[in-house]
Automatic annotation (TrEMBL):
ATP binds at residues 10-18. Coiled coil: none annotated. It comes from Limnobacter parvus. Residues 6-216 form the Cytidylate kinase domain. This is Cytidylate kinase. Its EC number is 2.7.4.25.
Amino acid sequence: SDCPVIAIDGPTASGKGTVAALVAANLGYQYLDSGAIYRVLAVAVAKLGLNPEIPANLLQIIAMAANLPVQFQADQVLLGGEDVSDAIRTEVAGVMASRLAVVPEVRNGLLQRQRDFRQMPGLVADGRDMGSVVFPDSVLKVFLTASAQVRAERRVKQIEARGQKADFQIIYNDLVARDKRDSERAVAPLKPCDDALVLDCSNMPIDQVVATIQNWARERI
Ligand code: C5P
């Protein structure tokens, strides 16, 4: 495809979602939040009370993945027409998404849905395996990371900004556990691919991260 893709991968709460959305807006590109697709599936699974550890349920989940009725609108994520924008952002949805993400058939089922976002004039895609699996021909692959301490602090601020209470130690432990699960799984483990540029943004303001990525993009597109 001639349609350029900028892949931004990295661990949870590295800021890649915010950064990817800003880069996409600045370049006038499409934006794919691939984690949101895993999270929508998680919400669909929870709604039906399915347990991925039960083989018959898992088969049903795999079938759902390939036909997930998800729609992304301006500021809304819809599942079968229902607004699930808030439901997908809960910790419970994140943990379920990460459990489903270890299943290769689930990942395959969600592949085409993600590739459909590749439309002119270009795409910025954020996730774990954008550069390695979903868009291996990306013109630019960034692995955006930050220390677990900084990511947990950011997550706490996000939760408190929503007027909810957050316990740093619980958030930190959950984040480290999810990193471990994401990086140790056999399929599409979370790690920079060989041709990725690694950017540690622990001590960088957002606008500097955005500018760095756009400078790299300018050299390639
Ligand atoms: O990025 P986010 O936290 O929204 O993703 C939720 C979960 O979905 C991640 O913890 C990860 O397990 C999974 N995921 C994935 N591959 C992606 C995006 C998300 O495995 N490209």
